[in-house]
Amino acid sequence: MFVHDVVKAQGHGNIRALHRNTLEITKDPAVTPRGDCIVACRANKAAADLRPEVRERIRHLDSLVIVVIRAGPVQDVVLCEGSPRLTLRDRSRIIIRKSTYVDDATICIRANKAAADLDRRLINYICMCSEVEVEIIAGRLSEIKEFLRGQEEAHQSDCSASG
To answer: What is the CATH number of the domain that holds 60?
Structure first.
């Protein structure tokens, strides 16, 4: 079973999204050019504010976390892992990391993208102070494998019936 939560935030003219290892969403009302990992500000939620079922699922050893970032007509997807080491206690930030480093704001690790890897069209919309939506979807890898096995069996059954 997958669970999800949605974070609403704003873009800002100072967002550069150039950091190679992390990306961050913050509740702070503004961004300076030095904050090169930040992709949205004025967020309505931080790590500690995520729905309890999302927080619980993210903390599983075999959790897969999908983060969908949308602004204007553009979206980008980040795939990452949860961990039992995550505390999810930060009340002002959400951080997604390529590394395995964990602090209170970290919601997932071993991400396939950081701020610098995001679609630059998305960043352009964010820089125009666009509304930003961040959807966080969490599930267990074992459930995905089970789902895919079922899909494969159904496909094989369909192929047998038609042949």
So the answer is: 2.60.120.630
Cβ–Cβ under 8 Å, residues 106 and 58: no
Confidence tier at 120 by pLDDT (50, 70, 90) = very high
Q: How many other C-beta atoms are found inside a 10 Å radius of the C-beta of residue 150?
A: 10
**70-to-8, 59, 60, 126 alpha-carbon distances in Å:** 10, 25, 26, 9
**What's the pTM value of the predicted model, to 2 decimals?**
0.89
**Tally of structural domains, the chain:** 1
DSSP SS3 for 137: strand
Give the chain's count of helices (H) and strands (E): 3, 8
Three-state DSSP state, 80: strand
3-state secondary structure of 81: strand
